Amino acid sequence: xxxxxxxxxxxxxxxxxxxxxxxxxxxxxxxxxxxxxxxxxxxxxxxxxxxxxxxxxxxxxxxxxxxxxxxxxxxxxxxxxxxxxxxxxxxxxxxxxxxxxxxxxxxxxxxxxxxxxxxxxxxxxxxxxxxxxxxxxxxxxxxxxxxxxxxxxxxxxxxxxxxxxxxxxxxxxxxxxxxxxxxxxxxxxxxxxxxxxxxxxxxxxxxxxx
Length: 210
Fold this sequence. Notes:
Layout: E1 7-10, H1 24-31, H2 36-45, H3 47-51, H4 57-67, H5 74-87, H6 93-102, E2 107-112, H7 116-125, E3 134-137, H8 138-141, H9 148-157, E4 165-169, H10 172-180, E5 184-187, H11 191-203
C-alpha cells in the first residue's frame, strides 16, 4: 500500500559521496607496520559490526589490530580512526547539487552504511545534510544495509509506506534488499541516467505538494 508520497532515498558512498580515497588503505597499513593485503582483509572483515553500531571506534580498531597481531596503543588507534574518517570525506559536488534540487519536487532522504563517529564528522562537514527530510546512518540506527531493518527504519521514521520510496544505491544487493521490503529501486551508475529514472518515476506519482 502507498500513501501517495514520493520519497527518493539515497545511498551516500558511491552515489553522492566518493568511495574511499585511493591510497588510504596503504597509508593505514603502513601505520600498523602490516602488509596492505593483510590490513585490507582485517579492515573489511571487522567492519560490519562497526558499521551497524555494535562496536565503538576503539573496539573496531582493537579488533583490526588483534587480527594483524599488532599492538593497540591509544595513539595508533586515534591516528587510524582520523585517517579513516578523512579517507571517506569526499563528495561529488554535482550530485550534491542534484540531490538538493530534487527537494522542489519530492521528499529526499538518505540511508548510509557509516559508523557513528564517521557520521558525526560527515554531518559537521556537510551542512546540506541537515536540509534533507530524513537522514539515517547505520551506526546510529543499529542496522546496516542490506539488513531489511535499515529500510524499515526509514519507512517508520518517515511515516510512509515502502512503495512511496525510490531507493538509489550503487550496490545491486542493497537495491534488491530494498525491493524485497516493497520499495522501488535503482542501481546507480551516473547522474544523467538517474535523473531520467527519477523523472519517469515521479510522473507515475501523485503530486506531493512540494
